[in-house]
From TrEMBL:
This is DNA-binding transcriptional regulator NtrC. InterPro entries: AAA+_ATPase (IPR003593), AAA_lid_NorR (IPR058031), CheY-like_superfamily (IPR011006), Homeodomain-like_sf (IPR009057), HTH_Fis (IPR002197), P-loop_NTPase (IPR027417), Sig_transdc_resp-reg_receiver (IPR001789), Sigma_54_int (IPR002078). Member of the two-component regulatory system NtrB/NtrC, which controls expression of the nitrogen-regulated (ntr) genes in response to nitrogen limitation. Phosphorylated NtrC binds directly to DNA and stimulates the formation of open promoter-sigma54-RNA polymerase complexes. Residues 5-119 form the Response regulatory domain. Residues 139-367 form the Sigma-54 factor interaction domain. Pfam families: AAA_lid_14, HTH_8, Response_reg, Sigma54_activat. NCBIfam families: ntrC. The gene is ntrC.
Length: 479
């Protein structure tokens, strides 16, 4: 029988009544309020095991309250509901630390399922000692290269030193940043990540530092930035090499002075965050090209960590494969094993996509093939597919998607000789590209449609329609 106290905040009396009845029948204790102030009082007093709240409240927007909740009680799950079923509402809910986002009207059965899952998940791990960190740290691999990474991380855990992580795409830079946070002295504070390459250049400063109402067109209310959200915790600046020069200048000033102002604001705000940056680019080369500030580089590069590509740690492949098969099994996929011939083939592969590519391959093997043991012949067939073809030679360049499509179409037209393909080619090609694109996004986000929509840059409802129209199987994580 479920147990726990659910704090429900919504200014719609009818919704409060429906939620009270449904959650009470499910066995939960329910407390109801129509304003954010009462909700915050309950949370700050330590009440409640989970929060269900609307976004727009009479006294305060819940997105302004969420950072305070996550800072004070980072383990408290918050489920956000909203009738404003826009892409940005879903994205902001995810960015602010909501456990889940539900558009109104919502399915009560889905809501109770989410609540049950959230309450069953383990709470924050105990603070660990450095002696047992080698076993607990969420990184996989026993190669000499990874052992050196572990030693560096162990020395950094009880410091606030700024860290620069360098590595190819897919090597696990964010995973290392999260490990620094989760096992460090700021583990009880928020971990906030921002990808510089994913933010429009003219919005990066507002994303980092927040903005005041009326600061620019569309700024209808004050919004907190990532520095404010990460106060007391860790701010992860991913793809720092893509940060525009004007934002670099402002970031440097913040690192030097320990304070910032919001866009459109005048009052300095003190900042208390640990900075972890990451890049897959050669920042020294960008400095020589005049694209990155040398003084900012030295501010960020206090402790450099280089993550080796998978081809430099092939001895870790068996452990990684077993780890990813175990994760897939926990998510409901059938258990799998892999034979020695297949492992040898994996060791010879170049892995241009690194650990992320290996993880996606393992999930594909677990989902698509009935065999209990994956053999060399099956794996060779899978690796021969164009989407994961190995690179030939050390100096080979990654194949450009546009060039690949152009070659494919050239071959396709050649099959018709002097004739033309049937009408409707445009939509046929788009459909062929959409399916693997959406499938890959869902695999990378472990079935989380909100995160997949953010990754793809589409509305969540649009993504749902595409999944339905293309008959894409969504494998949800149970973690």
């Amino acid at each position: 029988m479920p147990t726990g106290t659910i704090l429900v905040a919504d200014d719609d009396a009818a919704i409060r009544t429906v939620l009270n009845q449904a959650l009470s029948r499910a066995g939960y204790t329910v407390r109801l309020t129509s304003n954010a102030a009462t909700l915050w009082r309950w949370v700050s007093s330590g009440d409640g095991d989970l929060v269900v709240t609307d976004v727009v409240m009479p006294d305060e927007n819940i997105f302004d309250v969420l950072p305070r909740i996550k800072k004070l009680r980072p383990d408290l799950p918050v489920i956000v509901m909203s009738a404003q079923n826009t892409f940005m509402t879903a994205i902001r809910a995810s960015e602010k630390g909501a456990y889940e986002y539900l558009p109104k009207p919502f399915d009560l059965k889905e809501l109770t399922g989410i609540i049950s899952r959230a309450l069953e998940e383990p709470k924050a791990r105990r603070p660990i000692e450095m002696d047992d960190m080698g076993e607990a740290i969420p990184l996989v691999g026993r190669s000499p290269a990874m052992q050196e990474i572990y030693r560096v991380l162990a020395r950094l855990m009880q410091t606030d030193l700024t860290v620069m992580i360098n590595g190819e795409s897919g090597t696990g830079k964010e995973l290392v940043a999260r490990a620094l946070h989760d096992y460090g002295k700021r583990r009880n504070g928020p971990f906030v990540a921002i990808n510089m390459a994913a933010i429009p250049r003219d919005l990066i400063e507002a994303e980092l530092f927040g903005h005041e109402k009326g600061a620019f067109t569309g700024a209808q209310a004050r919004s907190s930035g990532r520095f404010e959200q990460a106060d007391g915790g860790t701010l992860f600046l991913d793809e720092i090499g893509d940060m525009p020069m004007e934002a670099q200048t402002r970031l440097l000033r913040v690192l030097q002075q320990g304070e910032y102002t919001t866009v459109g604001g005048r009052t300095p705000i003190k900042t208390d965050v640990r900075i972890v940056a990451a890049t897959n680019k050669d920042l020294r080369q960008l400095i020589n090209q005049g694209l990155f500030r040398e003084d900012l580089f030295f501010r960020l590069n206090v402790v450099p960590i280089r993550l080796p590509p998978l081809r430099e740690r092939v001895e870790d492949i068996p452990d990684l494969v077993r780890h990813f098969f175990a994760l897939a099994e926990k998510e409901g996929l059938p258990p799998k094993q892999i034979d020695q011939g297949a492992l040898n083939l994996l060791r010879r592969y170049r892995w241009p996509g690194n650990v992320r590519e290996l993880e996606n391959l393992v999930r594909r093997l677990a989902a698509l093939y009935p065999q209990d043991v994956i053999g060399e012949a099956l794996l060779e067939q899978e690796l021969s597919q164009p989407t994961v073809s190995p690179l030939e030679g050390d100096g080979a360049q990654e194949i450009n998607l546009g060039a690949s499509v152009e070659r494919y179409l050239g071959t396709y037209f050649d099959t018709f000789g002097d004739a033309l393909p049937p009408p409707g080619l445009y939509h046929r090609i788009l459909r062929e590209v959409e399916y693997p694109l959406i499938s890959a996004a869902l695999a990378a986000t472990r079935g989380n449609q909100i995160k997949a929509a953010e990754l793809l840059g589409v509305n969540r409802n649009t993504l749902r329609k595409k999944i339905r129209d293309l008959d894409i199987q969504v494998l949800r994580s149970t973690r």
